Fold these 2 entries.
Entry 1:
Amino acid sequence: MTRSIITAAAQVGPIARADSRAQVVDRLIALLREAHARGAELVVFPELTLTTFFPRWHMTDPTEISAFFETAMPGPQTQRLFDVARDLRVGFYLGYAELAEEDGLQHRFNTSVLVDRAGKMVGKYRKIHLPGYDAPQPERTSQHLEKYYFEPGNLGFPVWRTMGAVMGMCICNDRRWPETYRVMALQGAEMILVGYNTPDDHTGNFDFDSLTGFHNQLSLQAGAYQNSAWVVATAKAGLEEGSRLIGQSMIVAPSGQVVAMATSTSDEVVVARCDLDMAALYRRTIFDLARHREPQHYGLIVERKGPVPPPEDAQP
Ligand code: CDV
């Protein structure tokens, strides 16, 4: 018997700063209903789905900042989405900004949750690879201040056995890092869910930025193939408060092939049947990690953030 999950990437078009949570949740419910009508059992929404991508601005007023964060999930504004999903028996991934209270202190994380088809919260992930800066960059016209607004996630990259598969989550910039996929693959992940917000001018270097779409695909396809997993990647897309966010929401097979991709930068649902036996085939053969991976021969791995230092006898 083949195991499969019909999965949707529910791309969300631009969200204005003035848009209310109620307006956004209405759009998410419409996307969820469309996905369900097209057979989806699992829907993946983007990173920071509930608001505009606020790390593009430097805010200092705590009240202004808090308005972008959720203190509970589900909360009063999002409960409707959870209810509709449960009634339709559709599981989902949702990214949001989380204000958490831990050890008597407040912490801000860029977070996603995984909810099963019965409406039960299965897991939570907090983004580890935060891009950008922890202070505004005067030379930049548009800021990227994720390191200012968020702490790196403290939950690792767990996986969950749910909805008939082993699933893991990551968020946006995480998808560019091979460790993200590999840590989950080593735990048996068959599906990796990821939401993103990717401006097409994020480095300010045109040679680099013009490849933004290519790098998105490259990362997702390599991650899927090298780790024998389905990757379901969903964008917040379109012209949002002056920032052009790429679309390209896509579903990538463990073969590395893109099986569905959004064609717009608006609200759009793409659907594919994810055959989990295909993931098992790749992991049983070329990427049998237990048989073919050789970590004992990789040499000493040194935790170092900078380049290798020059030899001590190097000439100045
Ligand atoms: N939200 C993100 O993490 N965006 C980054 C951009 C800034 C490089 C990304 O990896 O798409």
Entry 2:
Amino acid sequence: MLRRSALALLAVALSGPAFAQAYPTKPITLIVPFAAGGPTDLMARIVGERMSKELGQQFIIDNVTGAAGSIAMGKLAHAAPDGYTIGIGHLGTNVVNGIIYKNLNYDLLNDLVPIARLPSNPLLVVTSNQVPAKDLKELVAYLKANADKVSGGTAGLGSASHIGALAFNAVTGTNYQLVPYRGTGPAVQDLIANQIQIMIDQSSNSLPHVRAGKIRAYAVTSKERSTAAPDIPTAAEAGFPGIEVVIWHGLWAPKGTPPEIIARLNAAAVAALQDPEIRRKLEDLGQDIPTPEQMQPAAFGAFQRAEFAKWKPIIEKANVKVE
Ligand code: ASP
């Protein structure tokens, strides 16, 4: 009897605040839902590396690709809720996938708990240098005249680049063929090589290639111009108001992860985004950095749910069919 209650006490001690204080005692796996070299992977590496310093443990990046991040979020939802497996995602993986994929083996909003909101960036309308259009109006005319020849890259149905393509096509009346990739890192390489002709891609992924003259940018999907690329007009300025998409990122853990551990991870993420070097790197890629208040788990959870409510009718109207 005594032995049993001693064991019970030990179990309480191991799961309670004392255990959380010791956390982390081993490396933390960070699941990334897209291919290495793309924008989500880049965010994971920049922020994860700084968080790992803060926590005194290594971060192991696990790229789990496929179905626009829904396989990765399933793996995260079913991982042990002990703080040693966390995941990064964005508007696509953690909102839109819950609307378009009907057979997920997890509940996107309830089986994952928010750790911290991470930066947001707009999308850029970019094409290969072979596309003969000087501005967005010419590009739209070109896409309409060459609908059967042009293809565009996305990171799968529900990804950020797919949401961008949906918004772009809805406003401009274009309808080019979409080619799914395991991430927009590989897709932008094919854009440079003109294997595909267009992408509506996160600025953090495309902007370095635009600056290097390897691809061409026509518009940014934010309300205001991006301070990282002040020469690129907004879609509204370029003649097509209504293409407004900003892709925010975040960190989540499996439901049941102790709140003390979530708080520890949140504090590490907040510290990472206060680091001037990290801020400079991210801002140079067109990322807007959330305030520490916006980054809090409860505020971020409320934001995610508000985004779900905002995007549900838009995505349902777009009638995306997932095979
Ligand atoms: N975030 C990108 C997208 O959803 C994919 C990636 O990170 O590679 O389009």
